[in-house]
Amino acid sequence: MNRIFRALLLVFVLAAALAFYHFILHPAAALTPVSPVRTLSSRVVLVPLDSRPPCRQHVVDLGRIAGLDVVTPPAECMDYYSQPGDTKAMQDWLMAAVQPGDAVILSIDQLLYGGLLAAREKQAPEDLQDALVHYLRALRAAHPGVPIYAFSILPRLTPQDTIDGYDERRALIAYSRLVGRKAAGLAIDEDELARLRAKISDQSLATYEGHFRENAALNEKLVALTKDGTLTRLVLGQDDGEPYGIPNIEKATIQQTMAEPGLTEQQCFLTHGADETAQTLLAAYACERAGYHPRVAIAATDPKAKTRVMPYMAVDCETVAKEKIRLLGGTVADAPEDADLTLFLSANDSDEGSMDTRQAAADFLTACVASPDKTGTPVALVDLSKHFDAAEPLLPLLLGRDFPVTRLAAYAGWNTTSNAIGTALSAAAIREAAAAQPLGADEARAIAAESARFLQNRMLEDYFYLKADIDPINHALKKAGYRNTSDLDLEHNHRWATAMLQKKLQLQTILYKHSKSLRAPFPVPQTGEELTIYDLRIDTSFPWPRTFEIYLETEPYFALAK
To answer: For the chain, which terminal residue's Cβ has fewer other Cβ atoms within 10 angstroms, N or C?
Structure first.
């Protein structure tokens, strides 16, 4: 306890010293506090993939940048961790919530199964699928002028939790990979395939393969609904993919179906990823409304960053980036000078020696924001870590250089490559689409402020929590008797666990908010003004009984820098 107390005391002393330095020895120039409020002129009705913040709250926050009021279902309809949502109540709510002039973004997994986790386990036989088809046709008939953007997630390679037994599950995963390689025309060890098959019961294999057949039948019906105009757009996402496996066989089949004459990418699109899909669809809608079709340059100083396949991905980083750009309605530019936006990929793997490339990356980003008029090409930074380790991301190096992180168009580094790229591109594209419209000073300030708030959310969660703080928190939980931090008893210990989380992030925030990086002024579009963040507060908690994700909202305090 004494060691912990001394460590906490040292942190507070350092924070006090920083505050003294910045405000007493080097007082800031006179600032004019402002509280910009974005006008929300249109509505988007969202049925989220599940109740986690990336699937719901991130979309709401991005909507504010775009001037869109994202309307979400009441909590009693939604899922909560392993408890599925009320699909009937959700469908009733959606039908009643839509108004003329709205747009709809809806998760098929939520409407049919009650969320992503439920979709991984529950069955949806033909009669339930047909009932959903009937509902979607009724939704279209009731709201004929409303665009309906739907997304559905392909099953992942990992077997359902209902298939129990460590050895059998391992055998199923290995078997799926070999079947996938064989389907791709690659040579495999047939004896090994037979050996693995012998370790899997007929019932377990039928359950596993039946899940993919069921999903394939559902997706064919969704494509047909798109073809006849019931759905305005359909996006299918591949959850936690690998280069080879039975999921890829289904993906190849549905690709052929989607390639039918008369269907365009603007109608049917297959992408890698799941949790970020609603964000990307919102960005696509916002860009379409604004007539903004971004030209995006994909940049990296690590020669392997673009071609590196990161964990839980079936393809490399550049392939994902190009996918998300097309999904947004954008195009890939040859170079940053030809682009409206630069997507910078930092995908570090300490085992490959890529850490040495971070200095060049920092130099590149510094040059991007160092133009004399400070209006260089906006940069969205994707900050990936192969081992999800605090030492691998680029952000701590930038902070150590006093890099003006507030001048980034977007930042993301959470979870998978598709999650991070989709989030960063969506945030940057929405910001730039909004900033390209004719704006008064108040709206311009509000766009800059909302974008800055989302940027800070991502930095504090994606780096400070998910890379730096989560391991110490998990360690503390295990010392307290929790053996599984993915299944916490928050019903009885919510206050204690949340207090620990808040204390950890508050300490990080105290130091971060006094840094030159955070306090660097950033431009307000079209006005010639600059805003600065002079204070930063956070609200955080665990949304589900696990430490894998947190609810986090920042409250920046803004002032006019000039």
So the answer is: N
In a domain, 398, yes or no: no
Same domain assignment for residues 140 and 9: no
Pick the closest to residue 119 from 37, 240, 295 (CA basis). 240
The distance from CA 284 to its chain's CA centroid, rounded to whole angstroms, is: 15
Strands (E), 48-160: 68-71, 103-107, 148-154
Exposed / middle / buried, residue 310 (Cβ in 10 Å: 0-12, 13-18, 19+): buried
pLDDT tens track for 56-69: 999 999 999 999 99
342 within a domain of the structure (yes/no): no
Same domain, 13 and 135: no
Domain finish residue from 290, 312, 331: 290
On whether residue 444 sits in a domain, the answer given is no
What's the pLDDT tens digit per position in 510-534? 999 999 999 999 999 999 999 999 9
Question: pLDDT tens, 119-164?
Answer: 999 989 999 999 999 999 999 999 999 999 999 999 999 999 889 8
**3 & 97 share domain:** no
The total of structural domains in the chain comes to 2
First to last CA, the chain: 47
CB atoms near residue 155 (< 10 Å): 21
CA–CA distance, 309 with 243 (Å, rounded to integer): 9
What pLDDT digit, counting tens, does each position of 222-245 carry? Answer: 999 999 999 999 999 998 888 999
Residue 472 in domain: no
Residue type, 186: L
Q: How far is the C-alpha of 133 from the C-alpha of 220, rounded, in Å? A: 11
**Whether 90 contacts 139, CB under 8 Å:** no
Judge if 49 and 21 occupy the same domain. no
Instruction: Count how many residues are written for the chain.
Output: 562
Asked if 1 and 136 sit in the same domain, the reply is no
Q: Is the pLDDT of residue 7 over 50?
A: no
Is residue 287 within 8 A of residue 328, CB to CB? The reply is yes
Tell me which residue has tokens 């919530």: 97
Q: What is the DSSP letter of 83?
A: B
**Dihedral, CA of residue 418, residue 424, residue 425 and residue 428, to nearest 10:** 170
State the pairing for strand pair 233-238/148-154.
parallel
The token duo for 364 is 């590149």
Domain span holding position 518: 1-30+480-562
3-state secondary structure 450-478: HHHHHHHHHHHHHHHHHHHHHHHHHHHHH
Q: Domain boundary at 261, 290, 319, which?
A: 290
Give yes or no: residues 183 and 250 share one domain.
yes
Mark whether 157 and 16 lie in a shared domain.
Answer: no
The alpha-carbon radius of gyration of the chain (Å, integer) is: 24
Helix axes 317-327, 277-290, angle to 10 degrees: 40
Give the Cα separation of 189 and 47 in Å (integer).
Answer: 45
Same domain, 46 and 24: no
Which residue type occupies 280? Answer: T
